[in-house]
Specification:
The protein has about 325 residues and is an alpha+beta fold. It has a domain of about 130 residues: L,D-transpeptidase catalytic domain-like (Beta Barrel), CATH 2.40.440. About 20% of the residues lie in helices and about 20% in strands. It has 8 helices and 13 strands. The strands form 3 sheets. Strands 6-5-4-13-7-10-11-12 form an 8-stranded mixed sheet, with helices on both faces. A hairpin with a 4-residue loop joins strand 4 and strand 5. It starts with about 25 loop residues before the first strand and ends with a strand.
């Protein structure tokens, strides 16, 4: 990992493809979901997840599937709101969280910027180092990330759309994601057993939840405490072959250009542990499912949000099973 020292960059994005930037795109229209989505159970699930994410408690991908990530986000939200921690969308939680199934999906008109910055995936790291940016692999990849969902969900919502040849002006049905709360966090707690990052305020109250991937090998999982030393948006990445034993044709360090499909995604939060950080990912659908070389991977949208909340000097505590 490149050593960013103690400088901090927290203003805007530099040369980031537009697909990653807009949470509530201006080219969207809040058409009631009941006119667009016949599956009311799916609309309810999407609304549940969107409301949790709006409040800062990540449910994972916005796909309408109420699995463990959505339920644990609900439980942690309930605890912080003084509600019974059921993990379910009970009456008290519904009143407090106010999910809106009628606007769980919206219409979105594809913009020319959505089709720019597409970068082919090159397997050879020597060839990747020659690329000027690591953009989205294709339009579907970028559009799915823009709306915090999976490729499969985008295709399911738009079964008649051919994403391979999609053109500007095409109207899509997409999850109605909203801007998430991003209050200042005083410290972080990384739960290694549950693969969660909790942001805490000055009083120790949990104000945000993020899901993450952790080191695949137990001996690379840190313990105790450390601190944040740098926050950087749209970072480049130094590929060091000594940390990638599965790669056999690279003999020296390589500088990999920035972009959403850079190995550390769109944000890097460096820790006071050599080579360790919290960062984005080129593979959002694999968060919590695959292990890292040691760092803590999050979706790009979660990494960007956390980078707005945290500052150098913040204490990071590791909760070890």
């Amino acid at each position: 990992m490149r050593n960013w020292g103690f400088a901090i960059v927290v203003l805007g994005f530099v040369a980031v493809p537009v697909l990653a930037q807009a949470t509530a795109p201006s080219a969207s229209h809040a058409i009631p979901a009941k006119r667009l989505l016949a599956d009311r159970a799916l609309a309810g699930g999407l609304a549940w997840q969107i409301a949790l994410e709006r409040e800062g408690f990540s449910p994972g991908l916005i796909d309408g599937k109420i699995g463990p990530k959505t339920r644990v986000a609900t439980e942690i939200y309930q605890r912080g709101s003084g509600l019974p921690a059921t993990g379910a969308m009970d009456a008290a939680t519904q009143e407090h969280l106010k999910p809106d199934p009628d606007h769980a999906v919206i219409e979105y008109s594809v913009q020319p910027s959505d089709l720019e910055g597409i970068t082919p995936l090159l397997e050879d790291w020597n060839e990747r180092a020659k690329q000027s940016q690591l953009g989205y692999y294709d339009a579907l990849d970028g559009l799915a990330e823009k709306f915090h969902t999976s490729r499969a969900m985008m295709q399911s919502l738009n079964p008649t759309v051919g994403f391979d040849g999609i053109k500007a002006g095409t109207v899509l049905i997409v999850p109605g994601v909203q801007e998430s709360r991003a209050p200042k966090a005083a410290s972080l707690k990384i739960d290694l057993r549950n693969k969660q990052i909790l942001a805490l305020d000055e009083q120790g109250k949990v104000i945000a939840l993020f899901h993450c991937s952790i080191a695949a090998h137990v001996e690379k999982r840190p313990s105790g405490e450390t601190k944040v030393i740098v926050v950087h948006r749209n970072p480049d990445y130094t590929f060091d072959p000594q940390y990638w034993p599965e790669v056999h044709n690279v003999t020296h360090k390589l500088l990999i250009a920035p972009g959403p499909r850079n190995p550390v995604g769109l944000a890097w939060i460096g820790l006071d542990l050599p080579g360790y950080g919290i960062h984005g990912t080129p593979h959002p659908e694999m968060i919590g499912k695959t292990g890292s070389h040691g760092c803590f991977r999050m979706t790009n949208w979660d990494a960007i949000r956390l980078s707005k909340m945290i500052r150098p000097g913040a204490i990071v505590t590791f909760v070890v099973p």
